[in-house]
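Lab notebook, bench 4. Continuing the backlog of folding jobs that were queued last week. Each job is logged with the same field layout so the records can be merged later without manual cleanup. Today's entry covers Terminase large subunit, a 76-residue chain. Filled in by technician R.K.

JOB TYPE: sequence-to-structure
TARGET: Terminase large subunit
LENGTH: 76
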Amino acid sequence: MHTRNIILKARQLGFRALVCIIQLDAELFESAKCALIARTPNDTKRLFQEKIKFAYDCLPEEGKKTNPASNDAVGS
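JOB STATUS: finished
OUTPUT FIELD FOLLOWS
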């Protein structure tokens, strides 16, 4: 993926999930540092659990061993 992608879409079609998956991929395989920003801390926690942690948990065990999670909670 390029660093400046434009995705044309209507509302509620999974754009946030796509961005979260791209960020997880960049963090795991490119050693990038990523941030998750939402309207409220509760929204941030919900997005983390529903999108990022869920995707990480679905990785094969070999992928988890190669890229172990050091923190599985949303910080402040």
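OBSERVATION: The CA atoms of residues 28 and 49 lie 17 Å apart.
SIGNED: R.K.
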